[in-house]
């Protein structure tokens, strides 16, 4: 089974480290230390999927289309 493609913006993969947050690599290292098997790709995918769920709920709340 092939892996799904990640979301890639024009300048590369999005990250929050430029805003003072942690990079996906740092997040995955912290999660691994806590006992969760995680790498940077998984951290990115979990974050993006969570953001999509939040955005879809907000769109539904305000009657907007999610496309």
Description:
The chain is mostly helical and 67 residues long. It is 48% helix and 0% strand. It has helices at 24-33, 40-61. The radius of gyration is 14 Å and the shape is elongated. The model has no long low-confidence stretch (mean pLDDT 80).
Bin the strand percentage. under 5%
The number of helical elements comes to 2
How many E-type strands?
Answer: 0
Q: Tell me the Rg in angstroms.
A: 14 Å
Q: Would you tell me the structural class of the helices and strands?
A: mainly alpha
Helix content: 40-55%
The average pLDDT score comes to 80
SSE blueprint:
Elements: H1 24-33, H2 40-61
Helix pairs in contact: 1-2
Question: What features would you highlight for this structure?
Answer:
single chain; 67 residues; mainly alpha; 0% strand; elongated
Put the structure in a nutshell.
With 67 residues, this protein is an all-alpha fold. It has helices at residues 24-33, 40-61.
């Amino acid at each position: 089974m092939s892996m799904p493609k990640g979301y890639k913006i024009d300048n590369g993969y999005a990250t929050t480290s430029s805003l003072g947050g942690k990079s996906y690599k740092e997040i995955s290292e912290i999660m691994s230390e806590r006992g969760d098997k995680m790498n940077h790709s998984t951290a990115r995918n979990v974050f993006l999927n969570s953001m999509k769920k939040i955005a879809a709920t907000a769109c539904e709340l305000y009657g907007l289309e999610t496309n």
